[in-house]
Each structure stands twice: as C-alpha cells, then as structure tokens.
Amino acid sequence: MKKRYVGEIGVLRSIACLSIVLLHSIMWGMEYIGFLRNLPRISQQILDSVNLFLYYGTPTFIFITAFILGYQYENRDVHAKSFLRKRLTFILIPYFCMAILYATPYALISPMEFIRKASLNLLIGDFHAYFVLIIFQFYLLFVLFKKYFTRYSSRMILTTTFIINVTYLAVFNFTPPADVPAGDYIWTRFYWVPFFGWIFYFAVAYYVGVHYEKVLNLLKKYKLVVIIAPFVTGAIILYLYHSNTFTVHSSKRVDMVLHTLSIIAFLLLLTQSWTRIPKWLLLINDYSFGIYLLHTLYMSILIVIINLFQLDFGIFTIILLFFGSLFFSIWTIYVCNQFKFGPYVVGRINQATRR
C-alpha cells in the first residue's frame, strides 16, 4: 500500500534550505563585505550567534534522506540498479555540473588550477555541495545493508552509531591535525565527507521513518520537553562558544548532534497543528535542491557588485544577499527546467503530492 505524502518533511526541507541560505548570507557577508566587519561588536556577536544556531541545516538534510528511506522502504525490497539509477541521474549529475561550475573561476589563474579545483570538488566535495557525497554514501550503505536492519535491535544500532558519530567528531573537534600528508586539510575540511560524522542522524531518521506514527505520539506526549529542548541545546552551544570553551564554528560540532535533533523534533511537532502548509514553504520545498546548489553562486555575484560599487546597506546587506540569492536561484531553476537538459544541470523541480 502506498503511504501518504508526509507534508511535515517538506516543511522540514524548506526550513533547512532557508536556514542554510541565511547562514551563508551572514557568514559570507561578514567575511567578504568590509563595512559589515565594522558593525558594533554587539551586532557582530548577535549575527555570529544566529549563524551558529543555524548550523542544523545540513544535518537536517541527512535526516530527511534517511527518514524517506525508512518511511518508504520499511516493507519493500530495494532493487539496487533502479534505486541508484534515479538518484544518480537527478542528484549526482547536477552535483557534477556544479562541481565544475564552481571551479571555473580558477581557470583565470591557470588551466592546471582549474583541473585541480574541479577534481577536488568532484571527488572529495571541496565546495558547499559536499553533502551530496554524504547522502550517496548512505544510499550505498542502505542498498548493501538494508536486509540486516531487522536483525539487530534499534536500541543497539542507535547506541552504536551514536558512539561512532560522537567519537569521530570529537577526534576532529578536540585534537590537533595529525602529522600526516594533508593533515591540516583533513582536519579542517575533508573529515566532513566520510559518513561516520553523520551516521547517528541517519540511524535516528531511519527508525523515525519506520515508526513515524509512534514517534508523533511520543512527541505529543512529551510536548513540553520537545518545545523547550531547542532553546536548551541552543543555549548550551552558544555558552560553550562565547565562553571560548568550544570555539569550532561548524555543523560538525559534537554538541550540534542533539541540537539538530531537538530542532527537528520541534518542527515535526509544530507542523502537526497546521491545517495547510503555506504556499511559500511549498515553493521552497519544490526548488530546495537547486537552491542548495546555486545560492552561493548568486551570493558571490551580489558580493562582487556590492564591493565594486561600494554599496552600503548596513546590516540590511544580509537581507539583500538572502533574498537576492534565493530569487535568482529559483528563477534559474525554473528557466532551466523548461529545457530537457535543465534537471540534469541544476536539479529538477520537486512537485510531490500535497497533503
């Protein structure tokens, strides 16, 4: 029997997408636009805090991927060839296109520099779309090991994956780079890509998908805890950061694991009271993958224009980067999808059944 479309996951995907665009608007604005670095210290601290809070976006996409697998394939066999073909076509091929596109500015330096950067992007995710490589690792693991999921208790799998996930992140969060070739790069960037840093999200999401109705009942039963949790985890993250106890600025912080899951639980509970999903959230959901791929391109262009013409909009520059990159990304996706090749370049427009 075909299961219903889970509108809550569409909302979750939209909010995660918007959070990532806002996060980059703040981060890139503060980094690359001079006058934003001259804002009062309190304003910079507030923006920095908002940025840190928003890092749940990328792990939420990992959660959504696993949730869908658990929800759709609980009682279905996985046919590896057809399962992977669809995802290779509409997810991995656009990733390859973007990996090359984002390497093209390096051609201005030299052809070899372009080849180097394109290779890094393609093979180890050396640009913002690295999360595609992460979800493909999970697709492969799902195809290979799905039949074993029922052989072990969910408690054992969740405990094991939690230990693996936290230990892995702790190594890179709390130890200096190893004295090995490319050690600094591995510690600052490459460790993002292997699935060990995300495996607990995947395990939790898979079981949430399998037992979704039971999970919803639990969220409602412990409603007060679910509502308070994101504020508690957020406060802990901000305290550790601003007290210089734990200064990593990333979605790969150890404490981001519980923070992300608390926000997901809160949003799933919140959407249960909605009779209809707002149209603007449906729009973002439909274009979310392409937005994720394209928004930094347009953000870069806007930053160049702002710096070139010395435009000073104060803190509203962040709003300009946010809405500007969002609008131009959606417009590009729409236009490209009018052509047969479009979905293979910028991702296709998702028009799932509405609830």
TrEMBL record:
One of its GO terms (biological process) is enterobacterial common antigen biosynthetic process. The keyword Membrane applies. The chain crosses the membrane at residues 12-33, 53-71, 92-109, 129-145, 157-175, 190-210, 222-241, 256-277, 289-309, 315-336. Keywords: Cell membrane, Membrane, Transmembrane, Transmembrane helix. It comes from the Bacteria. PANTHER family: O-ACETYLTRANSFERASE WECH. One of its GO terms (cellular component) is plasma membrane. GO terms for molecular function: O-acetyltransferase activity. Residues 8-332 form the Acyltransferase domain. It is found in: Cell membrane. Belongs to the acyltransferase 3 family. This is Acyltransferase 3 domain-containing protein. It is a multi-pass membrane protein.
